[in-house]
Amino acid sequence: MGPEPAVPEPEGLRARKKRLTREAIFAVADRLFAERGFENVTVAEIADAANVSVKTVFTYVNAKDELIFRQPTVLDAVVRAVARRRLGQTPLVAAAQALLAAVNETDENLSLGSFQRMTASGPAARSRVRALWDETETRLAEVLRAEARGAQRDLPVERAARRLTAAQIMVLVRTVTSDEVADLITKSADTDSGRREALGQWIRDAAGRLARGLQSPAR
User: Fold this and answer.
1) What tens digit of pLDDT does each residue of 135-153 get?
2) Which of the residues 3, 10, 111, 180 could staple to 105 if both were Cys, CB 3.0 to 4.6 A apart?
């Protein structure tokens, strides 16, 4: 028998208070950003909603933009869906289903609509989102690598294929949050429910086109 696992030290009162304060600040920031956009929320408003001082907020972050997307987002849901997909389901289909679920998600952090609004809310948010896209693509490639471990050698051609699959998924994710798709969906219906339905249909169609292989239109 191996050694018994170490029992973690109990969390002290001060450490617990700091953790809860940190979680409250990030949760409030994500909620306000999702509701109003990054550029339209001040650190003072975040501090007030979290019942702390502005000085306290800056003990956890150095700048306001570090508060963006600190809670799980639709990107995390996509990675989780790919990792937990059923036997025979392709990574792209699993990712598309996660996006479809996020269309009607009521949790602001995991909602696709909230993520789209944040993406369009200003330069700082867009810069952060671009970094998250790159991180998510790498996470997807790592998930696919973990699945293949033991089944085959990790050859360069296999690593490249996994990266291509991850990039294909991110094409769908990036495009669904683009200004062009937002404009298309806004003009497609007069009600929120109609726009959500149109967005869902766009995701299905786009995933199908990616699965078949995109072709440039004829000149």
Assistant:
1) 999 999 999 998 876 555 6
2) 111
